[in-house]
Amino acid sequence: MLVSAKEMIQAAYAGHYAIGAFNTNNLEWTKAILQAAEEMRAPVIVQVSEGAGKYMAGFKNVADIVKNVMEFQKTSVPVALHLDHGTYAGCKACIEAGFSSIMFDGSSLPFDENIEKTKELVAICNEKGMSIEAEVGSIGGEEDGVVGLGECADPEECKTIADLGITMLAAGIGNIHGKYPEGWPGLRFDVLDAIKAKVGTMPLVLHGGSGIPDAMVQDAIRRGVSKINVNTECQLAFAEKTRAYIEAGKDIQGKGYDPRKLLAPGAQGIVDMVKYKIEVFGCAGKA
User: Fold this and answer.
1) pLDDT digits over 250-286, tens only?
2) CA–CA dist 204, 151 (Å, integer)
3) 74 CB contacts (<8 Å, ≥6 apart)?
4) For 240, which of 6, 127, 149, 251 is 20 to 30 Å away at the CA?
């Protein structure tokens, strides 16, 4: 059974650890994320972007896959199914599809429109017992065609959005999606501290969690970050293990071309990466 992310996020904030939010892209990803969380006894957020939702044949199918895998694998840790960087229409679609959490990314809209749409979605989520994440200041890099330059959020705008009754707040602090470039200056902890001073006990979300040094991530957690998104590092782990299998010629040995064999090393790579991140975030054993 899917749960709202609210309880696990609030427990993480109080306990000074963070919940891993891992993007799924298909059945293998979903199985791997849930397997790793179960083995680590960690609450987990399985999330999907709108682009990955289309790739997986729609949000209803995503919800069905996650719930069916949970049942088949006898998942007993808390699992939230979350929309990552949702448009207003995407959020409405995921609410209808049976997700337990959404993120409304109105950061590219005029601020007043971001406020109004966030307020409307907060009311719907409260009625349905769902958690909701909102964003101020675009996150750098590219996420499904939305490009951000890694700008830093305005602490006053963060307070305005936080006061709307959201569950958690994503705020740009110099973080980016995808691989971090050479010479990236690091997270802006001065901005994070200024935001924290304005939003009080509101749990914060770190997007672009792939590639940030572990010590920097743990410093962010100590400063109030309670949810960390990971996608690129799982993709890289999958690609590396799959490439090694093929380069070793294993796909042409016997029935090594069988997708169940061909994809198994990559899937294990995802399991290993998720377990590693759970350790870094401090949420192992918190289920």
Assistant:
1) 999 999 999 999 999 999 999 999 999 999 999 999 9
2) 16
3) none
4) 149
Domain ranges of the chain: 6-232+270-281
Residues 6+ apart with CB under 8 A from 38: 73, 75, 76, 77
pLDDT digits (tens, 9 = 90+) for 88-131: 999 999 999 999 999 999 988 999 999 999 999 999 999 999 99
Burial 40-56 (b: 16+ CB within 10 A, else e): bebbbbbbbbbebbeeb
Q: Known catalytic residues?
A: 84
Q: Look up the CATH number of domain 6-232+270-281.
A: 3.20.20.70
Could you tell me if residue 129 is left (phi over 0), alpha (psi between -120 and 50 degrees) or otherwise beta?
A: left
